Amino acid sequence: METLVAVDALSRFGYALSDPIRSRILVELSSGPGYPAELSDLLGVSRQRMSNHLACLRGCGLVVMVPEGRRARYELADKRLAHALEDLLSVVIAPDPDHLMPEDD
């Protein structure tokens, strides 16, 4: 059963990272909490789109929302995620030029 839980966690993490905006959100939150409006402005996406991405990251279990009066602060669900993201960013990959990923729309 533990293997299934681990595979599910990796699948959720992979799904979250499969979108460049969600990846950027996670990188931003790895340096500290953020607010949707500020993240939206920083990443140049609409507030509705930011809301959708944050909901997805919450559903994946990677971020949590902390209510602050009328505002909501978002942060990584586990501080160790910041270290994991740092490790992933330091990995050197060797993509196969014959099998490149399609461009984002």
UniProtKB/TrEMBL annotation:
Record bears the keyword Cell cycle: no
Residues that span the membrane, as ranges: none
SMART domains in alphabetical order: HTH_ARSR
UniProt-recorded Gene Ontology molecular function terms: cadmium ion sensor activity; DNA binding; DNA-binding transcription factor activity; lead ion binding
Keywords associated with the record: Plasmid
Species of provenance: Cnuibacter physcomitrellae
GO biological process: response to cadmium ion; response to lead ion
Pfam families: HTH_5 (PF01022)
Lineage: Bacteria, Bacillati, Actinomycetota, Actinomycetes, Micrococcales
Signal peptide: none
SUPFAM superfamilies to which the protein is assigned, alphabetical: Winged helix' DNA-binding domain
Protein name: Transcriptional regulator
